[in-house]
Amino acid sequence: MTMGAVRPGVSPATVLPAAKAAAAELTMVEAADLTVVAGSARIVIRFESDDAEIATQIAEHVVATTRESVDVPVFTVTQRGKGRWVTVR
User: What are the DSSP calls for the chain, one per residue?
Assistant: First the structure.
């Protein structure tokens, strides 16, 4: 998910751990990372899911939680299949 402006009173250092914790409420989290791509901060939370619909629901929960701290203008859900990442949402 792309990370926009941090809400007043929120420490940027708390955003990634909060996003990871939101996913961990619902599933096993494999990895969490914050990167900068083309000048935009992006949070990547990799987690386990049995299917694309459930993965999308988990991602929507993570985004809703993250939006309490920062603006999230866009997010995508991908899944690994046959050695490639494929966009689900």
Answer: -EE-PBPTT--GGGHHHHHHHHHHTTS-EEEEEEEEETTEEEEEEEE--SSHHHHHHHHHHHHHHHTTTB-------EEEETTEEEE--
pLDDT (tens digit per residue) in 18-33: 999 999 999 999 999 9
Determine the pLDDT at residue 85: 87
| Count of C-beta atoms within a 10 Å radius of residue 70 | 22
Higher pLDDT, 8 or 86: 8
Instruction: Decide if pLDDT at 56 tops 90.
Output: yes
